[in-house]
Design brief:
Strand content of chain B: 25-35%
Helix content of chain B: under 10%
Largest sheet of chain B: 8 strands, mixed
Oligomer: heterodimer
Distance between the termini of chain B: 90 Å
Number of strands of chain A: 14
Radius of gyration of chain B: 41 Å
Shape of chain A: rod-shaped
Distance between the termini of chain A: 39 Å
Radius of gyration of chain A: 35 Å
Chain lengths: 309, 614
């Protein structure tokens, strides 16, 4: 006659012992090991508290229509310059050369954020002049909204020189965000919402490129024009202007920020609990082994069974 | 998916509503057209996102046309049949070439087409089922083209498509706001936040009259120029480039500017105002900004003439009028302004009470050059006596400021010339024996190095050479003491540290100094939150030649290189640690000046600051 398992159920066994006993001590040790060790494991394996996290956002960038242009027109230090700052233009005197400028900002993917700046500049030159180098400074209004609201004024600076006089310069690059320290996770961050170039100042020192650039790079948050391949076209025809075409893209940026309290806790909790589960399972087995085999003296009581004594 | 959508109408309704209320002003397009290059044409672009803000209780606006667009440019409404839309129809009443949807094209013209520039015109891609007008050209048997037009219904199986939309403007940009008297300012600000020429308005305020009488810090110093207009005191400075531009002088802002002036000798020697002394001395300043301000003429304190070789002689002030640039002989222009020093005295109410100027004049020899000019302006308070002594820190040294030095005299300590420690400065001629030598200040915290080359002939006087080189290295008036703190006073001799002089190297016979190495050890002193730099020891190590100089001197100036040794950081001596509460950092600042016997290579110098030559 064959037997088969017709039904099964787990039986609960209670192990009783006094308060001051080896089993109590063992239980305390096991509890400590179960709950504290995962914390140590998670913490010592690095990355328990996240200090820095990143997110992606396309910034809202607007060209501020502030421009500063210096072009070396000779090898002996001659130059012509132009800016949108009237005080500087007054100071430049005979070196002022007003170019024809056209600017267009495009929203290519129709998402409401501008993606591209097309800046075209035609610098008229006299017969004896040739362009050997170009320095161009453009200022931008730069805004981020997703985590902390960042409003700042930033700049793009291009410098290109060549021993051969040029006819055209094409600059095609990205306006990239540079961070030294991560941004806060919320709040308004507008300490850099000040003019990069003080256009209201009548003093020459305000327009010194050295000062402008060194002050700018002291900031935590800057933008830099990444243009790995400027194209310098030679062979300018007599009487034709020097052309400068810039295409500056406003790409999606990966921005690092310091996570807030709940985000930090959330990631710590995930790490802790995932390690804790392993420890719970292991120590459950150890406890079962110890008490089932009566390695520590306890009184096992089968649940549901009435006391005989 | 369409079946799923129709099954759960409620879900689709929610999706429809959601799609309609999404606040993306520029993503809705009226219809899409797909050409043979798959370019999507967008007919309207609008950045209008705000609705006209009108308060309900406001009085009735003057009735303006509600539809600002002219009749001819009217946009097609969103639910136009796709068969009537034609994005490539850009010529009125004329058939557009290869535009298959152009209703003006008759069959004879269409038969000449080779392809259709627009192949499909469809309504919004977000709809689950949409009308699509297809235009295809078929080659007939005679080689001519025949147009086939068909409008079909295309079904989208996207999960999140819109099954039906009943809102009128859902696929359109919001209608442009009609400008009225009330919202004009807001619209103007919104759309003209950044434009060219937004800075122009600020130009006016330069010489505007102000209510307060005196100047304030940073105000432009005014001059009583000819006629009605007030002028501005101009002080050349380097602007965008190293060339001089005329920048206004700012009240209470001490300025030191070095800039270059492009000079073509024949043209500019007598005519250029930038070279003439009068430009900088003949100035009538206004004592204040108000209308009744007194006129303060700039008085000439001294005029110094620098010869071609570099020697300077002071001319008596006021003797023989002003010196104007003049061509002495072809290719030599005399009395050219090289340096200008203004000292402005001001009162506590912000008035300029006195202004003096010192000028250094010199010669230009080249026919065309960039002439370097130097301009200083210093503001001194009235009754403040002479120029106040500049301390290099209070009390501890500030990095980047010069070290205070002194010499011992019979009366006690006295500040040495320029009262700062200085070292030899590298020059273009690189010759150690060719004077006069420039000295550069030893700046606190900055390690630096400079050098020159020494060329010896077979016949040289050893003791004379040794003495000469020592004076080149140490300077004409060598300092003996250095202040412990940046603000040490001469009255406290304990605040001054004697320079320990060490001589190294031994050579049989003639021994000349080849390098001077200054080791300045300093420590941080005082509270942790505000540590003060204190100099704890200063040592001058003079390295003499270790081998016989005879072997260094070749027959024909054969180069022989002795590399200068430069010591690294050394730990601080012990006794001072007891005096400090907590020695946080011990650092060492090394200054090295070396003489290289006949080294053909240029030596780099780490910093460049020259003492005032006047």
């Amino acid at each position: 006659m064959a037997f088969y398992e017709v039904f099964s159920h787990p039986a609960l066994v209670r192990y009783r012992t006094g308060v001051c006993s080896k089993a109590t001590l063992f239980l305390l040790v096991v509890l400590c090991l179960t709950y504290i060790s995962p914390l140590l494991v998670a913490y010592r394996s690095q990355g328990f508290w996240i200090k820095r996290s990143t997110y992606e956002e396309q910034p809202v960038v607007r060209f501020q229509y502030e421009t500063l242009l210096v072009a070396a027109t000779g090898t002996r230090g001659d130059f012509v310059a132009w800016s949108t700052f009237p005080h500087l233009n007054n100071m430049l005197g005979s070196n002022l050369r007003i170019p024809a400028v056209s600017v267009r900002e495009e929203d290519q993917n129709q998402d409401g954020k501008l993606d591209l700046l097309k800046f075209q500049l035609q610098l008229p030159l006299k017969a004896e002049e040739q362009v050997y180098s170009i320095q161009l400074l453009l200022t931008f209004n730069y805004q981020l909204f997703r985590m902390s609201t960042v409003v700042m004024q930033s700049l793009a600076f291009v410098q290109h020189s060549s021993p051969v006089p040029g006819a055209k310069l094409l600059i095609s690059g990205d306006l990239r965000l540079q961070q030294r320290t991560p941004l806060p996770h919320r709040g308004l961050y507008n300490i850099y919402n000040v003019s990069v170039v003080d256009g209201s100042s009548p003093f020459a020192s305000s327009y010194d490129l050295d000062t402008i650039i060194s002050n700018y790079y002291n900031r935590n948050l800057t933008t830099v024009l990444s243009c790995p391949m400027p194209v310098w076209t030679v062979g300018r025809a007599a009487g034709s202007p020097f052309e400068l075409n810039a295409e500056i893209h406003y790409p999606v940026e990966v921005i690092s920020y310091r996570p807030g309290f709940w985000e930090t806790i959330k990631f710590a909790w995930i790490q802790y609990v995932s390690v804790l589960l392993i420890f719970l399972w292991v120590f459950e087995r150890i406890q079962k082994f110890v008490f089932q085999n009566q390695i520590l003296p306890t009184v096992p009581v089968l649940a549901g069974k009435p006391h005989l004594s | 998916m369409s079946a799923l959508c129709s099954a759960s109408t409620l879900l689709c309704l929610i999706l429809t509503l959601d799609a309609q209320t999404t606040n993306e002003p520029n993503t809705t397009d009226i219809f899409n057209t797909t050409g043979d290059t798959n370019i999507t044409y967008n007919f309207t672009e609008s950045y209008t996102t705000v609705e006209p803000t009108q308060s309900p209780g406001a009085p009735e606006e003057p009735s303006l046309p509600t539809e600002p667009l002219p009749e001819s440019g009217r946009l097609p409404i969103a639910d136009s049949p796709v068969g009537r839309l034609c994005p490539c129809d850009t010529h009125r009443d004329v058939c557009d070439i290869n535009c298959c949807c152009d209703p003006e094209c008759i069959s004879q013209e269409v038969s000449l087409f080779t392809s259709c520039s627009v192949l499909t015109v469809s309504s919004s891609t977000r709809l689950c089922s949409r009308d699509v007008a297809l235009y295809t050209l078929r080659n007939a048997a005679d080689g001519r083209s025949e147009l086939q037009t068909s409008v079909s219904v295309e079904t989208d199986y996207d999960l999140l498509c819109i099954r039906s939309q009943n809102r009128h403007d859902s696929f359109s940009h919001p209608a442009p706001v009609t400008p009225t008297d009330r919202n004009f300012e807001g619209l103007f600000e919104q759309f003209t936040s950044f434009v060219f020429g937004s800075d122009e308005a600020e130009l006016v305020s330069l010489t505007e009259l102000q209510t307060s009488s005196g100047y304030q810090y940073g105000d432009v110093v005014l001059t009583a120029a000819q006629g009605e207009h007030r002028g501005v005191m101009l002080l050349p400075a380097s602007g965008l480039t190293a060339q001089c531009v005329d920048s206004p002088a700012a009240f209470l802002v001490d300025q030191h500017s070095l800039c270059s002036q492009h000079v073509i000798l024949d043209r500019d020697c007598t005519s250029s105002p930038a070279l003439s002394m009068d430009t900088f001395t003949d100035i009538q300043l206004l004592s204040g900004r108000n209308a009744g301000a007194a006129v303060v003429p700039v008085t000439v304190d001294s005029v110094t003439l620098q010869s071609v070789s570099g020697t300077q002689t002071e001319l008596r002030a006021g003797s023989g009028g002003t010196l104007t640039p003049a061509v002495m002989r072809p290719g030599l222009c005399a009395n050219v302004v090289l340096k200008v020093f203004y000292v402005m005295e001001y009162s506590s109410t912000g008035d300029i009470v006195n202004a003096t100027v010192s000028v250094l004049l010199g010669f230009i020899q080249k026919t065309s050059l960039l002439l370097q000019q130097e301009f200083h302006i210093t503001y001194v308070q009235e009754d403040g006596g002479e120029l106040a002594i500049h301390f290099s820190g209070n009390p501890g040294y500030v990095s980047g400021l010069p070290l205070e030095s002194a010499t011992r005299t019979a009366q006690g300590l006295s500040r040495s010339v320029g009262h700062f420690l200085s070292v030899f400065h590298s020059e273009a001629h690189q010759d150690c024996l060719q004077g006069p030598h420039q000295r550069s200040l030893v700046l606190f915290g900055l390690n630096s190095q400079s050098g020159c080359t020494l060329r010896l002939t077979d016949t040289f006087n050893c003791s004379l050479l040794s003495e000469l080189l020592l004076s080149v290295l140490r300077g004409s008036d060598p300092a003996q003491y250095v202040a412990l703190f940046g603000n040490s006073l001469l009255d406290n001799p304990t605040d001054w540290l004697q320079i320990k002089r060490v001589s190294r190297g031994e050579a049989a016979g003639c021994s000349v100094p080849l390098s001077l190495h200054l080791e300045i050890e300093w420590t941080k002193y005082g509270a942790l939150s505000n540590p003060q730099a204190q100099i704890v020891s200063i040592k001058e190590i003079i390295q003499t030649n270790s081998s016989s100089l005879v072997s260094l001197t070749g027959t024909r100036n054969r180069p022989h290189i002795v590399l200068p040794t430069f010591n690294a950081v050394r730990s601080l001596p012990g006794p001072f640690e007891r005096r400090q509460r907590r020695p946080a950092h011990q650092q060492l600042c090394g200054i090295h000046t070396s003489i290289r016997p006949c080294s053909p290579r240029l030596q780099s110098h780490a910093y460049h600051q020259r003492q005032a030559a006047l």
